[in-house]
Design the sequence.
């Protein structure tokens, strides 16, 4: 559905993306993971026909994004990061306008159907300026779906939502993934894990890793970080924890608090607990620290000779346990 | 063409939910009403009666032309500049709409709005027609209004082009106002000054947007070249607007 080869985009002074190559198959939810400014939005804008690339080729639904831009645009639904809404239109007017631009037949029925599906029926006559952020996000999604596109491109679809809304939107995306090919960008690892079939990690305009979320998770969190809190006199506690097999990189935080990493695949938490109690410390807390995207980047860049060197499949094959 | 119409329709209906359009209509109709009223009062004064002065419609239409020139920028400035600010330009530029359809659609919406405003002002000639016998001179009224419609087309096109260059509406407004006033008043002045000094080169006449209107159409003279003049200005500005949208894609 999406075929990208050697895609490069230069802005006047800066190279936004360099030599991106990836693909997304029919019915796949592909996650685009990276920090702000990594080139996610630029890539999406090229794929939606908003701007042409400086070099390289991209095909969406079998059409070239430059030479057959209108054909591509007919088959793509796009929700940009800042949701493009007209504040002085009602929800219904806005969706009807978008449906008209997309030449959707039976416009009114289609809009009603979408409003129903996204839980917006009672807001149909509200002005968009009066909607909450979560509602606007839904309207943005409805807009992208109005012509039932083959490919959905969603730029940070959960940005700025509250936790309940985030879950709602994620579930909706998963549901949509059964019928549409979806490319979505995010900078939240857990989101990519929950929603996507496959994840591309992009940093400074280059792909640094590509895999299923599970395998990526295994690989990246093979070393798990665990935080421990003991009460009272905590002298020597680091030595006790460090002596347990399977524990690496013990770092003391503040008084009575420390963090350690585990060897890949090992779970030394019971041994650590036992060791601490036997040594006479009062164990107050022990919990696994979620791996943030920042950790992954640190890890990825630590694994590589240079941060800009693309990792590609080679690195993955070397690193992944069989 | 369907896309042009879709965009124009939205743009047109948008004016009815924006205070700017009502403000423009209010200012235009109020000022015009005051001038109309005072020209009637002057015509009814004893001196004017003695001299056999009959008010004609070109008084109203001349002012209408000037008001159009000053107020059109207020209607056109948001057309593309606001899309840029809201980010909705991304929506339009990723919809299956060609760049020229977007630009022409925007132009058509604003143009139809101005034509609606002009239609409302028809009330003055109709009233005047009742007041004087044997009625007003139909010729200058027809060509005068044709001229106003053509001027609207040209000014709106210029406005769309300038709006496409900015994402800041204030900047777009001031630039449009400056450009329109320059081509409406300043070049006209230059033509007159140079005319009194001797030769006026032909090209500077072409820069005077108000010239064909004031010299021919207001006097009931309909010339093909004046029609072509306004239509070419419109087409050129729309072409430049399309180019500007296209160039921005490569940014």
Sequence:
């Amino acid at each position: 559905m999406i075929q990208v080869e050697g895609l490069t985009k230069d802005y006047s002074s800066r190279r936004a993306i360099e030599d991106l190559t990836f693909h997304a198959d029919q019915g796949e939810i592909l996650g685009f993971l990276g920090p702000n400014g990594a080139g996610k939005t630029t890539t999406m804008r090229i794929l939606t026909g908003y701007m042409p690339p400086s070099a390289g080729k991209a095909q969406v639904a079998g059409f070239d994004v430059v030479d057959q831009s209108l054909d591509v645009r007919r088959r793509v639904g796009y929700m940009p990061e800042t949701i493009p809404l007209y504040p002085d239109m009602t929800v219904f007017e806005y969706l009807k306008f978008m449906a008209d631009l997309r030449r959707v037949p039976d416009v009114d029925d289609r809009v009603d159907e979408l409003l129903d599906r996204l839980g917006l029926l009672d807001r149909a006559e509200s002005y968009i300026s009066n909607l909450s952020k979560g509602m606007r996000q839904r309207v943005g999604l409805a807009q992208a779906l109005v012509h039932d596109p083959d490919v959905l491109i969603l730029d940070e679809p959960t940005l700025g939502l509250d936790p309940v809304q985030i879950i709602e939107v994620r579930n909706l995306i998963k549901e949509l993934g059964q019928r549409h090919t979806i490319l979505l960008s995010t900078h939240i690892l857990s989101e990519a894990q929950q929603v996507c079939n496959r994840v591309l990690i992009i940093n400074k305009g280059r792909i640094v890793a590509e895999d299923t979320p599970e395998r990526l998770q295994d690989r990246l969190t093979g070393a798990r970080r665990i935080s421990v809190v003991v009460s009272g006199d905590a002298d020597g506690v680091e030595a006790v924890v460090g002596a347990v097999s399977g524990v690496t990189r013990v770092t003391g935080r503040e008084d009575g608090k420390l963090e350690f990493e585990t060897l890949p695949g090992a779970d030394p938490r019971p041994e650590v607990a036992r060791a601490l109690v036997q040594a006479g410390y009062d164990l107050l807390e022990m919990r696994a620290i979620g791996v943030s995207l920042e950790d992954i980047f640190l890890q990825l860049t630590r694994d590589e000779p240079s941060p800009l060197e693309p990792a590609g499949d080679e690195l993955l094959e070397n690193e992944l346990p069989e | 063409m369907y896309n042009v119409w879709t965009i124009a329709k939205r743009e047109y209906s948008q004016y009815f939910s924006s205070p700017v359009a009502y403000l423009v209509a209010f200012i235009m109709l109020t000022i015009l009403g005051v001038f109309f009223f005072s020209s009637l009062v002057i015509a009814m004064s004893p001196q004017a009666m003695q001299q056999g002065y009959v008010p004609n419609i070109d008084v109203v239409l001349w002012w209408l032309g000037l008001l159009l020139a000053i107020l059109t920028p207020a209607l056109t400035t948001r057309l593309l500049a606001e899309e840029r600010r809201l980010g909705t330009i991304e929506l339009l530029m990723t919809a299956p709409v060609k760049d020229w359809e977007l630009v022409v659609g925007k132009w058509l919406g604003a143009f139809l709005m101005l034509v609606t405003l002009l239609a409302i002002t028809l009330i003055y000639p109709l009233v005047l027609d009742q007041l004087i016998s044997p009625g007003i001179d139909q010729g200058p009224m027809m060509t005068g209004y044709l001229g106003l419609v053509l001027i609207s087309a040209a000014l709106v096109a210029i406005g769309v082009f300038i709006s496409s260059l900015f994402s800041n509406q204030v900047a777009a407004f001031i630039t449009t106002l400056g450009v329109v006033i320059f081509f409406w008043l300043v070049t006209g002045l230059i033509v007159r000054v140079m005319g009194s000094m001797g030769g006026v080169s032909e090209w500077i006449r072409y820069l005077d947007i108000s010239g064909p209107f004031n010299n021919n159409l207001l006097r009931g003279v309909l010339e093909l070249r004046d029609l072509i003049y306004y239509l070419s200005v419109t087409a050129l500005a729309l072409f430049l607007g399309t180019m500007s949208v296209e160039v921005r894609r490569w940014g």
User: Anything to note?
Assistant: Residues 253 and 259 of chain A are 7 Å apart (CA to CA). The interface with chain B takes residues 11-12, 45, 48-52, 70, 73-74, 76, 78, 80, 82-89, 97-98, 100-103, 143 of chain A (CB under 8 Å). The mean pLDDT of chain A is 83.
